[in-house]
Specification:
402 residues, alpha+beta, 3-stranded antiparallel sheet, elongated
């Protein structure tokens, strides 16, 4: 084929574009596809070689989210570099250059967002494996901070492409900055409050807190506010400034949860049974593995209007309120079982009218029991005894939630 024919054919125009320019655009498209394939293949190989098998699925998922922004960035860069070589009209080249600059900036921001998400997801998985909850609080803050930083850099590049003087713009914004600062004092207080919460750590995500009239579980700590999930399942957004200015009662940091109650015994209970009941309750405390064994008080406290008041002052080890209530349930059931074994009656508010009559018999009360017999009953409720249930022993499946 004569060279002149090839030359003429390459310079033939179709819809205003010469054939060799079409070929150039096709070559650019091939370069984009090949470059994308090479990058994805290299990253997959790095995932296989550089990460443990348990992390392969995680990193491949993150890579799949990165592919579209990466393709857009490769297309914009290739267009910006290769299009001027195709010798189009200067007006067309200017339009394409502007489009390529904006597209590359947009793609760069998207890639940055995906990288921030990948880093945050990886950090979140690591944070879930640790006992500390501080890193759980920092993950969403780091994600937001990283995206704000990437977005700010992208905005600067866009402004530079529009030939806007960044220095002059910042100086102009500084003039109105004073007014903005005065109008956003509360916002700044909340931002500083969020930093104080992260530094001082008065509570963590998942803690049960009481702040004024707000009570619930901390669900999220953000830059401006803290979200508290109430026990009515409503979500309250509390400004961080209030969280730092108000006393925070952190119920979630308790090692032991106090249980204080009073049990009334009938006045006709004989002293030995009272003593046996008190010692039996102490034995039940020692038998329950979820209760504190080095400090508890069980004593005949006072003479009440309706009965003899036995004070029970103990502490429960529980990480949740449900665990606390379950331990109370088991403990109270064992006290009732002890009272039945000792034939001790609980007192309740009542009024008795005594009328002198020669036909009225004596009040029916349980007969006295031998002290050794009472001692054996107490030992049955002690740690090595067989009378106490020591843990929840439901009659059916228990119908626990979950």
């Amino acid at each position: 084929m004569p060279p002149e024919f090839v030359f003429n054919w390459l310079h033939e125009a179709v819809i205003g574009i010469e054939v060799w320019q079409f070929i150039g655009l096709g070559v650019m498209a091939v370069i984009i596809v090949v470059a994308r394939f090479a990058i994805v293949w290299s990253l997959n190989a790095a995932i296989t070689r550089r990460t443990v098998p348990e992390r392969h699925e995680f990193w491949r998922f993150e890579l799949s989210r990165l592919q579209r922004p990466l393709l857009l960035m490769l297309g914009a860069v290739t267009l910006a570099i290769g299009f001027p070589v195709l010798d189009f009209d200067s007006d067309v080249e200017d339009v394409v250059a502007i489009f390529a600059n904006f597209a590359s900036t947009f793609a760069g921001v998207l890639v940055g967002f995906r990288l921030v998400d990948a880093a945050a997801d990886y950090w979140r998985e690591i944070a879930q494996e640790t006992d500390s909850k501080l890193d759980d609080q920092l993950v969403p803050l780091a994600r937001s901070t990283g995206k704000i930083f990437v977005g700010a850099i992208g905005a600067i590049f866009v402004l530079q492409n529009l030939d806007i003087n960044i220095t002059s713009l910042i100086a102009g914004l500084g003039i109105g900055g004073v007014a903005v600062a005065l109008a956003s004092q509360d916002t700044l207080k909340n931002l500083l409050g969020g930093a104080t919460i992260l530094a001082d750590k008065p509570f963590q995500v998942g803690d049960w807190v009481i702040v004024g009239d707000i009570e619930g579980t901390v669900e999220q700590v953000g830059f401006r506010s803290t979200r508290v999930r109430t026990f009515a399942d409503s979500l309250i957004t509390v400004p961080n400034a209030r969280m730092t200015d108000t006393a925070v009662n952190n119920m979630g940091q308790r090692t032991w949860r106090r249980y204080y109650t009073t049990v009334g015994l009938a006045y006709h209970t004989d002293p030995d049974r009272i003593q046996a009941f008190v010692e039996g309750v102490r034995a039940i405390v020692r038998s329950n593995s979820n209760m504190r064994h080095d400090y508890y008080i069980v004593e005949l406290h006072s003479f009440g209007d309706s009965g003899l008041n036995i004070m029970i002052y103990t502490f429960i080890a529980a990480s949740t309120w449900n665990e606390e209530l379950r331990t109370r349930h088991v403990f109270n059931i064992d006290i009732i079982r002890l009272a039945q074994e000792l034939q001790v009656e609980f007192a309740f508010p009542t009024q008795t009218l005594h009328i002198a009559s020669q036909h009225q018999g004596p009040e029916q009360i349980p007969p006295p029991r031998d002290r050794d017999d009472l001692s054996n009953t107490i030992e049955d409720f002690a740690p090595k005894g067989s009378a106490g249930q020591r843990q929840d022993n439901p009659i059916t499946g228990g119908y626990d939630n979950g």
